Amino acid sequence: LMASPLARSLFHRAIGQSGAQFNDRGNHMISLDDAEAQGGRIAVAAGAESLAELRAATPGALVAAAKKARARFNPVVDGHVLPETPDAAFRAGRQNDVPLMAGWTSAETKWIRQSLSEFQAERDRLFAGHEQQAARLYPAASVAEAQRMAITMASDTWIVFGTWKWMELQRKTGKSPVYRYLFDQVMATPEGPVPADDPGAAHATDIPFVFHALDYMGAPVSESDRATADLMIDYWAEFARDGDPNGPGLPAWPAYGSEKPYHIMRFKNGGAAEPESDRGRMKFIDSVNGRPLDH
Known about the structure:
The structure is a single chain. By secondary structure, this protein is α/β, with parallel strands linked by helices. 41% of the residues lie in helices and 10% in strands. The chain has helices at residues 32-46, 51-56, 59-68, 86-91, 116-126, 131-137, 143-173, 207-210, 223-242, 279-289; strands at residues 14-17, 30-31, 76-77, 100-105, 178-183, 263-267, 272-275. Strand 6 (263-267) and strand 7 (272-275) form a beta hairpin. The two termini are 25 Å apart.
């Protein structure tokens, strides 16, 4: 919405929870031609010779056809809703300039399992030509370290970097403030309490906290969980109303970039502002992608 001219003046705040279309190494945009070509492959796989036949197909048949065609449904730069990529719109200052609150979970891709050699090979593949710097930023000398770094690296390249770049571009070319968070509250499961070596909060686990839905998760809910949810709901409501998450009785949440080092709000056992710790990794990915900002 912030990148679409059609949405101008239709909304006044934006909240991004884990992900944005600013990352060549993760989610990426496709052209209208590519999207139409993919639709043609799905139609062939479905055995449909017209739009009417596609519309008459059952949902199950369409899902099966999409799988057969190996379709991936990425956002489309269609020339109408999105006349350009969000990256291009924000770089030129053409975004819908509204207050932005965004962030991610502490272990977006939580269930990766790799040996030390597998992790090192994947790191070298992802950052070919930059292996030494990648090894400094994603170090691992044991299987346990490889597991942790594999989660960090996959999270960075899938979700984290794109969301970070969104905030950085808004901060650079927009006038409205940005607020950044990290969700790090891990709930117990029906099988038992959170393990001591748990790597962090997985993708989308922040959603039930924001929507006061913890009791629908089928797992024990701790007082810490409830306190974190209550705090997040208060911040989200304040931001929706005023474009600023701060409010009476809430821990101070500095605007992103308003002081150095840059501060984020970490949600764990409630919430508290703290300095960011990942700027080096983000700037590295930005430089490897070939379109770095002057941070």
